[in-house]
Amino acid sequence: MNILVTTRIALRALAKNKMRAALTVLGIVIGIAAVTTMVSIGQSAGKLFQGVVESLGTNVLIVFQGSHSVNGVRKSGAATLSSSDAEAIGEECPAVLAASPVVWTQAHVIVGNVNWSPDETRGVGADYLIVRNWQLRRGDFFSKQEITSAAKLCVIGQTLVAKLFQTTNPIGKEIRVKNIPFRVVGVLEAKGANMVGQDQDNVLLMPYTTVQKRLRGSRFNTVGAIMVSARTADQMNQAAFEVDQLLYERHRIPPGEDPDFVIRNSKEFAKLLGTITGTMTLLLAAIAAISLLVGGIGIMNIMLVSVTERTREIGIRMAVGARGKDILRQFLVESVILSLIGGAVGVALGVSASIGLTKVINAFSGGSEWPVVISLPAAGIAMLFAGAVGVFFGYYPARRASRLDPIEALRYE
Question: Model pTM greater than 0.70?
């Protein structure tokens, strides 16, 4: 008896009791749908986190102020970084593409009778957009000469354009920051909200020298941080090493002393997020896979009942020439068909649930848009797993059926 004939017989046998077959595959449907959904949502979160890291810039290192020693005692929060450090990093580190000092402040922006407070007001260097991989929608950025002269210029994000100028072109217009007039010379491309819902376009950029001298009234050239971009992703570690060695030398840190700066690597941050999301995805998939086990046990129970109900039918088949392996094959095919039907329905429900859950998350998150990710490999593996469940849990009932004694089976009532 070939496989096609066996399949037709199995389908006819299952069609005799459609309700029981449907209830049998319900556990498989739920398990496959849960696994597909959880893996897709986990991969969606991973893709979102990757986008958040990429929004920081291209191959970014961030150098923060550290601590310094006073009479042998470590003091934290010291102003240890300077704009000249940023210039030296950009000029003397071969693996570094660009570097920009960053100075933070807070201020209200006034245009006419509109008063608005940006989420971030930053003083930056001429290469800041290169480091952040951020484009201008219109206008220009600050030149090195304008930074040196502490020019009263600014570049604004899309949120400030909408709040302060509506549909008017802001280039060349004047805004007031702490009662100091600034001329808008550029508008940034939109970046949207980050992972925690903060609007990255609600930003005001100015020359760091302008923030230091005109807004903060400082005569020192210290900066809050230095953002550094490596030339390639493969040169991140080399760039970090070169920056570390250069700052050790410039800050005259004795051998064995802790540095007065801290270097953070966006690549390491991305790797950490990837590990977290990957672990959570596997954990969720493992929990969801438990229902597959339950569904498999359900298939085994129903197949055992089916063997008992069809004992006389099995005896008749054997009496007319069916061999034990033919009976084994028939019941195995029935079990696998049930599992694959449940797997197909489960994958369809899982894909629909993934899309629906992503839309619900986006509706209530208020942050970055979660991408819709359909994990086709996960769906394929789930289908193979469903078939394996059918074989594994269907083998015992099928083997039991194939070992029935034909005479005893014919006598069975």
Answer: no
